[in-house]
Structure formats: C-alpha cells, structure tokens
Write a structure and sequence with these properties.
The complex is a heterodimer. Chain A is α/β, with parallel strands linked by helices. Helix content of chain A is 45%, strand content 13%. In chain A, the strands form 3 sheets. Chain A has a 7-stranded mixed beta sheet, sandwiched between helices. Chain B has 2 helices and 6 strands, in the order ββαββββα. In chain B, strand 5 and strand 6 form a beta hairpin. The radius of gyration of chain B is 25 Å and the shape is elongated. Classes of the chains: A alpha/beta, B alpha+beta. At the A-B interface, helix 5, strand 4, helix 8, strand 5 and helix 9 of A face strand 3 and helix 2 of B.
C-alpha cells in the first residue's frame, strides 16, 4: 500500500496546477531544457505594472543609505587606495520588515485577482510575515506552514518570532517538528482548502524582487553617477540573487557584479532533528544556498523561477560569528539595528570592499527587521543553551553546530570564495540525472545549461564529457 | 492559585497531533529524524470544554476545524533578547576608537 506521503506526492502536479493557476507544461522543451524567459513573462506584468502593484501594497521604495562610518572602518584596515564605498538598501522598512514583501505582494495580487479565497505558504522565514501581512490587506485567508521545533518541542527563537508575527497578522500557523514532509502537509492543505500556493519560487514572487534591483540601480546612479560596481546579496533559495540581478539588468546596470553570500553551515544536515537547533541562522546559509543553486528545481513548483547560478558572478561564505560581530557593529557605528540573517551580505561586503578601489561602490541590497528571538543576542544566548560554544577568537576556527567564534578585530572578517566551477559541475550532473539514465543532451540542452550556469557551451560540453567518463 | 488546566468552549488554545508516525515518514531522513514522529501544533478557538491532554476540536483563524489533543491554554509568546553577550560588549567602543584614530590621521 502506498503511504500517505507517496499518495499525495504522486498528485503534486495536479494539486499545484490548480493551486498556482498556471500550467508549467507549456514551457517544457526537453527533459532538461525549458523556456525560462517565457515562463517569467507568462504572468503578463511589466516591471512598471509590478511597481504599481507594490506601491499600492505599501511595498518598495526603501531608503538607500550610504554607510560612511563602516566605509571609513574598512578603509582604516585596507591597503592605500582601497576600501570601496558601502551602501545598504534598508528593506526592513517594508511593511512586514523585509524584502520578502516584494515577493508576497505580487503573489497575493495574483491570488486575489484569480479569485482564490486564501493562500498557503511553507516558510519558516520572513516570507511568512510578508504573505500574512499582504493577505490581511487583501482580505485573503492565510495558512503558513513552519518547521519550528525539534522533537523535544524546543523552538528556534527566530522561528518562534516568525510564528508570532504571522499570527499577529491573522494567519493560521501550522508549527511542525523537523522534516521535509512539511511540503507534503502543504500539499494536503492546498488540496483540502483550494487555496492559492504562494510559493517563494513562482515567477510572481521572483518578478516582485526585480523592482529591488531596478530601484537600487537608479538610486545609485542618481547618488554616485553610475550603477554600483558590485551588489552583494544574501543567498538561500536563490530568489534574492535572481530577482535582484534581473532588475539590475532591466535598469541597464549590465556591468554590476552580482555577488551572493551565505553563512557557512557546512557539516550540518538540514533534515536532522539533532542539528536543527544547533544552527543560529535559519536562512541565508549554505544549507539552502548550495543545494538550491545546484538544483533549483527541488522547489515546490514544477520549475523554479529562482535560478541563482544564471546570475551569480561570485559566491562568498562567512561564518556565524562574523555575522553576529557585524550585526553588533552596524548598531554601534551606523545606528542600524537589523536582523542577523540580512547582515550576511553586509559581512561579505566588508571583506569585499577591502579588496576594491576607493572609487568603487558596493551595495548590500537588503536588511531585515529584528526583535525578540531574531536578535543576535537572542540567537547567541540560545546557541549557548543548546551546547554550542560561543567564544572570542579567530572566526576561521568556527565549526558549524559546535562553536561560534566571534572576531576580536574587524581585520579577522574574511569572506571565502566558494568554488563556482564545482557548483556548475554539480548543477549539470543534477540536470543529467533528472533527465534519466541514457538521455543524450541536445544542442538546445547544452545552450540551456550554459545559460542556466552563466557559462558557455564549450564549458558545459566539457563537463558532460567528463561526467560520462566518470 | 492553581494554574488553569482546562479550557471553556470559545477559549483561544493550542492543540497538537502526530501527522506522521516514524513508520509513515519520508524515505532518506537521517536516523535521528526518521525515528521520531512528525508532530504538529496549531492554535484556534476551542469548540468544547476540555482538559489539557483531552481530544479537542478547534476552529483556526481561517475557519478550519482541526482536531488534536489540547496542548496549551492561552498560548503566548515568551521569546526574548536575553542577557548581554560578553564577547560583543567591546565591539562598539573598539570600533569607535579605531574610527576616531583613522579620521584624525586623515585630517
């Protein structure tokens, strides 16, 4: 007998077709390739339309702030002539406190327009707050599924805060113990309620982030005379990188470097009941960042609109202790008390700005709200309670799940480059595996894979040949 | 006064239930997850009088009727900021001093 999980999973296609009101099959080309731009354009909204939707929703147009003290701090420890100007887009100023409002506002607009009674989203992060807030404004019912507790019913304080804020906006919050079957329950709920799937990975949501890239390109040009040299993006599922990069391109910022950044949580298993409360970041980490970059179609939609490898020029990792240090530094030097996850890119930007000339500019494209549970003090206190060692020292000595090493000096903040070639190889291997044994990629597939990995046909062919040999 | 142990119909409460037993869980999970049930909690308005641990149906914020065991009465939020972190206590003063020295040298 098939299990409940298998039964509902087998009906995923049918459930999601009704819950998204969009047929993905029309974009499929081969077992590997699909029409990405066709899928992105299918909702029919231009960037201007999306800006109008968001303005009405109370979302976007957040302040772009130059961080002069932080820039001076970076220059104080840089080689002469180095130390780029650092800016931040204060996305915490959005209605529910993060850039996720941009994603949610478009999804909720579509749900409302298509006549759904309510929405369902599976998210333990800021996206839940954003969906709940926008649903409330649009008179839609809202269910948020969260992975909130370990099997002892100990809650990650950041997620408990997210449960609270969703409930504050009137959402029904389903709090669950650790496990990927969260998505199975989401499907059950979509099936029984007939609500809209406000997926993080639909083209609606990802298009909503394009306004962020476009805004910052325009604002930087007005402020400094040119688009930014580099934009640093906190990276998890890939939507933030994808949407921001697409928006920058649409605004004509073709030379801006796109740098993704995640907290290094290597060694921790994302489905482990033991590891769950031994990590101090619930998003913006490599536990999502690497698997989603190397296989985006693991998402809850047939084809993921968030395809970060297409846009990423570099991928930097930082440690938990470095981000907590920078979060504290941002409070003290810039008067900006914001959530630690959103400061992941800020930490990478400090390291990056040291390598760049003084006339270069770096934009950190988001901040997120903070508060009880989310705050860096709350996270560090919780880590100690969970048996993680917290100490001062060289952050290079941190071991995810075992120790958090807080820098003693800002010079110790050093982002590490993740091997992009390795990620591209891994993506191509995953694509071939999913196409099925014996499938021979067509010329169109090679072209698709080259675009999807931000590389070229020759490099993809070399990877395919090497995989065949191995 | 003894702590309240039961709810009246209409009270805001929390129920819990096992969504999947260890046998029903997805394949490929790490052992420490696979051998535990997948448990769920949701809040709603009690549809009857019940004591903690009793079976109870609640009406959730979306109007769904959900059955479980009564797990909490007047469920609140008690997450905090917590104690100051000694390893971060010096950060503000250190960086302020550095910045002052840098700006002074540039004058």
């Amino acid at each position: 007998m098939a299990s409940r999980v298998d039964e509902i999973s087998a009906r995923k296609g049918e459930i999601m077709l009704r819950a998204l009101g969009m047929d993905y099959s029309e974009f499929e080309r081969t077992p590997i390739a699909f029409d990405y731009e066709g899928m992105m354009a299918a909702h029919g909204y231009s960037l201007d339309d999306i800006t109008r939707i968001q303005t009405k929703a109370g979302v976007g147009n957040t302040p772009l702030l130059e961080l002069r003290n932080l820039t001076d701090l970076v220059r104080s420890m840089s080689e002469p002539g180095h130390g780029a100007r650092i800016f931040v887009k204060d996305e915490a100023a959005n209605m529910a406190g993060s850039f996720k409002d941009r994603r949610a506002s478009v999804s909720i607009h579509v749900a409302k327009k298509k006549g759904y009674e309510g929405v369902v989203a599976a998210t333990s992060g800021n996206y839940g707050a954003a969906v709940s807030s926008q649903a409330a404004r649009n008179n839609l019912k809202c269910i948020i599924c969260q992975e909130a507790f370990d099997s002892r019913h100990v809650g990650q304080p950041e997620i408990i805060e997210k449960s609270r804020i969703c409930e504050a906006f009137g959402a029904e919050v389903i709090q669950m113990t650790v496990g990927p079957e969260l998505f199975f329950h989401m499907l059950e709920l979509l099936d029984s309620t007939g609500y809209f799937a406000a997926s993080l990975y639909s083209s609606f949501g990802v298009s909503g982030i394009e306004t962020l890239g476009a805004e910052l390109a325009r604002e930087m040009t007005a402020l400094t005379g040119a688009p930014p040299t580099a934009v640093v993006v906190t990276h998890a599922g890939g939507g933030n990188t994808t949407g921001t990069a697409r928006g920058l391109r649409r605004a004509g910022a073709l030379d801006t470097q796109i740098i993704s950044a995640s907290v290094d949580l290597s060694g921790l298993h994302m489905a482990s009941d033991d590891d769950f409360n031994r990590k101090s970041f619930t998003t913006g980490h490599t536990g999502f960042g690497v698997p989603f970059a190397t296989w985006p179609d693991r998402a809850d939609v047939p084809r993921n609109a968030a395809r970060s490898l297409r846009y990423m020029d570099r991928y930097l990792t930082v440690s938990q202790g470095e981000v907590f240090y920078v979060t504290e530094a941002m409070c003290k030097l810039e008067g900006l008390e914001r959530g630690p996850s959103g400061n992941t890119a800020m930490t990478a930007a400090i390291s990056l700005a040291r390598e760049m000339p003084r006339d270069a500019t770096v934009v950190v494209q988001e901040t997120e709200y903070t508060g009880a549970g989310k705050h860096h003090w709350a996270q560090l206190n919780f880590a100690r309670q969970m048996g993680v060692e917290v100490r001062s020292g060289d952050p290079a000595e941190n071991v995810p799940g075992k120790s958090i090493v807080i820098p003693e000096r800002p010079e110790q903040i050093r982002a590490k480059d993740f091997d992009m070639a390795k990620m591209r190889r891994s993506y191509v291997r995953n694509a071939l595996q999913h196409a099925g044994a014996g499938y021979v990629p067509t010329a169109g597939d090679i072209e698709f894979l080259a675009a999807d990995t931000n590389s070229d046909a020759a490099s993809v062919e070399a990877i395919v040949a090497a995989l065949k040999e191995a | 006064m003894a702590e309240k142990k039961s709810c009246a119909s209409g009270d805001w409460v929390e129920v819990e239930w096992v969504l999947l037993t260890p046998e029903e869980r997805a394949a490929g999970l790490p052992a420490e997850t696979a051998n535990k049930p997948l448990t769920v909690w949701v809040k709603g308005f009690a549809q009857a009088e019940a004591a903690v641990g009793d079976e109870l149906t609640v009406e959730t914020m979306t109007g769904r009727l959900v059955a479980g065991r009564l797990s909490d009465l007047e469920p609140g939020y008690f997450h905090t900021f917590g104690k100051p972190i000694p390893e971060l206590a010096h950060v503000g003063a250190d960086l302020r001093e550095r910045l002052a020295a840098y700006l002074k040298a540039g004058e």
